[in-house]
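Re: weekly structure request thread

Next one in the queue (154 aa):
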Amino acid sequence: MLKNILKNLVKDFNEREAEIVAWAVASEGCITLFNIQPYGKNKRTQIRPSVQISNTELIFLVKLRKMCGGSIYLHHRKFEGHKDVYQLVITGKKSVLKFLEKIYPFLPIKRKQAKTVMAFCKSRLKRKKKVPYNKYEVSLAKKIRILNKRGTKK
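Done, posted below.
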């Protein structure tokens, strides 16, 4: 079950806080573009940017949220012996772009993912709302899927 616990917009944070947040994203986070399948009257796939940080300690994510905003969700684990996990999620083109621009200089890893998602956000923000995705934007969504793929790289 996914439950929204806290909600807020991306806030401004200083350089030291940006470095802390960058390391949290690098170690426990994900920078991605979600494909949302068509539903209702809108019969086209949607691509949405997202940055997520997961942890089993709520207090850690609450402190991060105070620095950078976002929403915290609770994921209940089904398996015995597994702790519930909390997830700080930042979504929306403007919010994700602002967040990634702040932490990008401090990211030790996942820089390619950050650069790809920032390029997608910039491209979409230049265009009118509800305009179909161009080839460049679709290629960025495919690229992020490859960058985030699990397992050994060939």
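The first strand starts at residue 2 and ends at 6. The chain has one domain: 2-147.
Next request, please.
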